Amino acid sequence: MTKQPTGADAVWPVLGYVLRRFGYFAVVVLAVYTLAFLLLYALPSDPVAVMLDRRSSGAGGSTPEQIAELRERYGLDEPLLVRYAGMFGRLLGGDLGVSFQSGQPVRDALGAVAPNTLALAGAALLIALPLSALLALVTSWRAGGVVHRLLVNVPAFIAAIPAFWLGLLLLQVFSFSLRWVPPAGGTGLAGLVLPAVALALPVSAALTAVLMRSLDDVQRAPFVTLLSARGLRWRRVYLAHVARNALLPFLTLAGLTVGGVMAGTVITETVFSRSGLGRLLVSSVEVQDAPVVLAIAVFGAVVFAGMNLVIDLLYPLLDPRIRRPGSGVLA
Amino acid sequence: MAVDDLSLTVPAGCTVALVGESGSGKSTTLHALLGMTPRSATVGYRLLEVRDHAGTALRVDDPARLRGRSIGLIPQDPVRALDPLIRVERHFAELHRHLLGISGRDESRQRALDALEAVGVDRAPLRLRQYPHELSGGLRQRLLICLALVGEPRLLLADEPTSNLDTSVQRRILDLLDHLRAQRGLSVLLVTHDLAVAAERSAELVVMRHGRVVEAGGTATVLGDPQAPYTRQLLASAPSRLPARPVFRPHQPPRILLEAREVGKSFSGGRRTEPVHAVADVDLQLHHGQTVAVVGESGAGKSTLLRLLTGLERADRGTILVDGRPLGSGRTARAGLARRVQLVYQNPASSLNPALPIGRIIAEPLEAHRVGSAAARSRRARALLEQVELPEQFALRRPPQLSGGQLQRVAIARALALEPEVVVLDEPVSALDQVVQHALLRLLLSLQRRLGMAYLLVSHDMGVVRAMADEALVMRRGRVEERGATHDVFTTPTSPYTRALLDAVPTLDPVGDPAPQEEGTAHR
Questions:
Q1: How near does any CA of chain A get to the CA of B80, in Å?
Q2: Are residues A134 and A282 in the same domain?
Q3: A220 in reach of chain B (CB within 8 A)
């Protein structure tokens, strides 16, 4: 707890807290934009040259006039700082620019594939969160018991499986051998299941390990012993007290996991040949399609920071101890 | 074997005290009574009986069934004994529903209010809406007693119920337990390491060591005429049995090592509250070879004052002088201060790096200040171990292999490494067993005689203060309430606050009374 509350804090701590969290959100998004922008535009490689090279491959060279015209069209003739600010302003307004590669608005390219990826990531989280919660709750039911000793190593085992290999394995078993689901490029729910599972499993390994650990820690807390000593059944103590206390670190990690899931889509979409942001990102990086890469980076940052913003705002509702920062005064 | 062949009877309406050093099996006994031992433990009973309200003895086969309804447990550490995420009201509601089958919200609430008021909690309706972290230690302990009583048990197990509380709060909580026992005809099994608490509060006493009962009987009888050598050792090691300090005579001319002139420090409080004056206008002088003790309840500003005097925190007002020169800020000033003033903390287990060998831990300050070669530092570490009366071979061991008392000796050796003029002792023995405490206090006294450094002592234990300090400074709400030679402050306190503080200290004095006492009069 901070000993030096800010001005806003003294007036209304809730507002101060919320504003600060929104501030963090803005800082993260801005930082990602800045870093991506510098990497894409300030590095000594000429996007126009690359662009022309690609477009006119086999069709002879291009004239200096063409190059100048392209530079102007994409605003590449302006100073770096002007482009940095201007582009950010346009991003805020929802204008994501025009792809170097296709000449189409980036917004359309993103809009076409983003739902696929969001569905995949969402489905993966919907699998990973309950799965890991359940696995951890079962494992830690009795610390030191047989179940605990057997299951405690499962997360490490899952985490050791390479994501691409897991995807291939799932494809081999469920698509080619059992023919339950289409092998590649599937649409709808049937096509979503396998990639979502392949994406969820490695993620749930970390989540399970953390939840297990905190369940075990909370069980050692004196208040748990005391609740049992007062005659409450273990099921009640475990679910109403141990699980609830252990959920707090789990929640934080779940927020961070969103980032892992987004990154994981790159591999999963490639293995399952699904169209999506991950694959679009890979192909755009290959051809140095800066506006697309930048847009995906910022989009990812917004989703990631947004999820963590939601969790940060949720946290004080779940943990009364941080609800009033700075008020360490005992009644 | 943690506990071996233990027989214990707690008569109805009576307090039985279980005393012994840590690791002697006191807590294991309590947990075994509730069937709460870890999986690795095996517990065997020949006979476990509980008497019901009518007085019929009922044989118990599954001790887990006693929990809550026949036996209530009051824990040691009130801070971590409540689920931090739920309000006080829900703590009650849960027990009402699952133990008594009461699911009506209004009835549960009314019962909770009555229960809180019965244990002397003020503003009960407000308390119900609060979370555990918003309550003070004393309030939490009252709440825990309340919760232990929900199932109307006949026997209360109190596991060091007051060892983390201030003396005055301790007294009120023990009074409350006595009151409840008398009012409701409860039996209390009081586990404590404090012989004085046992002497004041129990009718019968069981002394445990290494999992066995070494002596048992009426409290007054056992303490008045101890048979077992261990009981005698316990009695002899009470801090009040240490010889009183000779009168302190400062050097001529006086050498003042550390001085505070009207120092103050404030923290801004929560919303819409006044800033908290943690320390306000405190003057203090520490002479060469002198021991000054700072006493007071928690929250009185003792720790803040220490942090100011040791340069760990900057004072808002006033000046701090080291050897007559104002305490500067910055790295060199701090390094210079560290060579003159060293700290020994309360909990040695957490203030020593568990991964380093003891020799390295002791030599670390020398390393940090680039004193001597590696070989010379290692020689010095061994010499320091000898000074704190530990074997030289300990230099190669690591903290987890040492006991609490040995670790505190290591902490003292480390503090002495730079030959400081002032050693600040922050509750140096409060985490230790009484016998170990005693040995450590003697060590500190003899080190001071031999090496001549000054001690600045913070302690809530008046016995320790009386044995160690030349001058006592009683603090209350950041201000000095009373100061003077320790003997004067203890015998003729002028402030009512000091008097109350001293009165709350449990004493072994009834034992010193040559007239044999009737059983039951030892608890008041």
A1: 6
A2: yes
A3: no
Q: What part of B 64-83 touches A (C-beta under 8 Å)?
A: 67-69, 71-73, 75-77, 80-83
Q: Is residue A314 part of a domain?
A: no
What is the Cα–Cα distance from A326 to A314, expressed in whole angstroms? Answer: 19
Report pLDDT digits (tens) over A202-260.
888 889 999 998 999 999 888 998 898 888 888 999 999 999 999 988 988 888 888 88
B270 touches chain A (CB under 8 A): yes
Hey, which residues 244-263 in chain A have their CB within 8 Å of chain B? 244-245
Distance CA B148, CA B143 (A): 9
Nearest to B84 among A142, A226, A321 (CB): A321
Query: Do B425 and B444 form a contact (C-beta atoms < 8 A)?
Result: yes
Which residues, 6+ apart, have CB-to-CB distance to A14 below 8 Å? A316
Number of H helices, E strands in chain B: 20, 18
Q: pLDDT by residue (tens digit) across B428-465? A: 888 788 888 888 999 999 999 888 899 999 988 888 88
| Chain A neighbors of B298, CB-CB under 8 A | none
Q: Does A97 lie in the same domain as A127?
A: no
The answer to whether the complex's ipTM is over 0.95 is no
A280 and A301 fall within a common domain: no
Q: Strand ranges (DSSP E) for A129-215? A: none
Q: What total of structural domains would you count in chain A?
A: 2
Tell whether A276 and A297 lie within a shared domain.
Answer: no
Residue A324: list chain B partners with CB under 8 A: 270-271
Same domain, A122 and A263: yes
Residue A40 is encoded by which pair of tokens? 């894409």
In a domain, A193, yes or no: yes
The token pair that represents B86 in the structure block? 């739920």
A23: its two tokens: 């501030």
Judge if A96 and A123 occupy the same domain. Answer: no
Model pLDDT for residues B231-283, shown as the tens digit of each residue: 888 888 877 777 777 778 777 778 888 888 898 888 775 555 567 788 888 99
In terms of CA atoms, which chain A residue is nearest residue B91? A227
Cα B507-B508-B512 angle, rounded to 5 deg? 130
Same domain, A179 and A298: no
Is B40 an interface residue toward A (CB < 8 Å)? yes
Within 137-166 of B, beta carbons closer than 8 Å to A belong to: 139, 144, 147-148, 150-151
Model confidence pLDDT, tens digit, residues A61-77: 567 777 777 777 777 77
Phi-psi region of A203 (alpha: psi -120 to 50; beta: other; left: phi over 0): alpha
User: Domain for residue A225, yes or no?
Assistant: yes
Contact across the interface for B95 and A230, Cβ inside 8 Å: yes
Kindly list the distances between the CA atom of residue A283 and the CA atoms of A117, A167, B165, in Å, as whole numbers in the listed order. 15, 20, 66
Q: Would the CB atoms of A232 and B133 count as touching at under 8 Å?
A: no
Looking at residue A10, its pLDDT comes to: 44
Instruction: Using CB atoms, pick whichever of B34, B82, B83 lies closest to residue A229.
Output: B34
DSSP B76: S
Judge if A123 and A97 occupy the same domain: no
Q: Which of B83, B91, B99, B133 to mutate to test the interface with A (most CBs of A within 10 A)?
A: B83
Contact A274, A283 (CB under 8 A): no
Residue A74 domain boundaries: 12-101+289-306
- Domains of chain B with CATH codes: 15-241 (3.40.50.300), 245-323+421-507 (3.40.50.300)
> If you search the block for the tokens 């005809």, which residue do you land on?
B185
Cβ contact (<8 Å) for A321 and B150? Answer: no
For the beta sheet containing B422-426, the strands, ordered from the edge strand earlier in sequence to the opposite edge, are B341-344, B422-426, B454-458, B291-295, B471-476, B479-485
Residue A297 falls within a domain, yes or no?
yes
Q: Is A94 exposed, middle or buried (0-12, 13-18, 19+ CB in 10 A)?
A: exposed
Does residue B514 surpass a pLDDT of 60? no
Three-point CA angle B69, B154, B163, nearest 5°: 95
